[in-house]
Amino acid sequence: MPENRALPYLALVLNALVWGVSWWPLRELQGEGLHPLWSSAFTYLLGALAMLCFMPKVWGEFVRHKALWLLALAAGTTMVGFNWGVSIGEVIRVVLLFYLMPIWAVLIARVALNERITLKALLRVGLAFAGAVLVLSPNGSLGFPLPSNLAEWLGLMGGAAFALNNIMLRHQAERTAQARLFAMFVGGIVAPSAVAALLALLLGEGNAFVQWPVLPGFYGGLVLLAFAVTLLVANYGLQYGASRLPANVTSVVMLSEVVFATLSAIVLTQEVLTLQVGIGGAMIVLAAALSALENKDAH
After folding, report:
1. Other beta carbons less than 10 A from residue 73's beta carbon
2. Alpha-helical regions (H) of 114-149
3. Which of 73, 83, 232, 270 is the most buried (most CB within 10 A)?
């Protein structure tokens, strides 16, 4: 029976949808007393255990290839920045700052892979930077685009880590997709739990940032389990779609996450998409899309 040609696209859109609305279960769990860093760690722990049950060989491949450890670190740092940021800040701003990847991708590729910085790359960086100026500046004014709170810094950090994550995925293309996915799950366990534990230890009991994890009630446990299963399905959707479509097509389709995040934040919270932020966000998304389209030309 021939494969449905729409399935890879639908799988990628599903992944983007899950990540676009992931802030909601994270905030629900935070309301149950479970910090988003602990929620992230527990969620990926369930995913990693599921992989080990059905694909035990991924552990050996992960241990043997140290470059996968760097992938795990990049993925874990991405989870720390994105999941914590969207849980405590304005979803729209955090997601847009996360997608400033064209800037980070150019810089990291230059340092790590010695890739030449082209004129097109500089133009994309300029476009993304101009978008960041609009997103980060107070409405009606312009200034140097520095984040004004922890959530915005986390979004920026998560985007930089995600750019490294994508470069490492490309660098480790010879590894199996399962091993790369498992490495990202391991990072999603280790980095958030390490940051949460360190902050809880340093800041002490009663601090406003991170507390030690508590056992969630029935509702919290149900949300945590559903979130873990949904993320596992979404990540397999990403692997399915990305393995059947050109990389540039995958990158462009995944930008729909910005749309899902924006719409869900407007509908479910009191967030408002202003004209200035909307224009800045469109510039950032356009820079990311142009980056994906140039990758098509490069291959």
Report:
1. 19
2. 119-136
3. 83
Enter the tokens of residue 18.
Answer: 């899950």
Cα 136 to Cα 96: distance, rounded to the nearest angstrom: 10
Q: What is the mean pLDDT of the chain?
A: 85
pLDDT at residue 147, rounded to an integer: 78
pLDDT tens-digit series, residues 169-180: 777 778 888 888
Beta strands in 104-183 (DSSP E): none
Q: What is the pLDDT of residue 299?
A: 41
Show me where the domains of the chain are located. Answer: 7-298
Task: For residue 10, count CB atoms less than 10 angstroms from its CB and return exposed for 0-12, middle for 13-18, buried for 19 or more.
Answer: middle
pLDDT, mean of residues 254-270: 88
How many other β-carbons are positioned within 10 Å of the β-carbon of residue 258? 21
The predicted-structure confidence for 202-254, as pLDDT tens digits, reads as follows 888 777 778 888 888 899 999 999 999 998 888 888 878 877 777 667 777 88
What is the DSSP track for 220-279? HHHHHHHHHHHHHHHHHHHHHHHTTS-HHHHHHHHTHHHHHHHHHHHHHSS----HHHHH
Sequence-separated contacts (24+) of 44-47 with Cβ below 8 Å: 44/79, 44/185, 44/186, 44/187, 44/188, 44/189, 44/192, 44/228, 44/231, 45/189, 46/225, 46/228, 46/229, 46/232, 47/185, 47/188, 47/228, 47/231, 47/232, 47/235
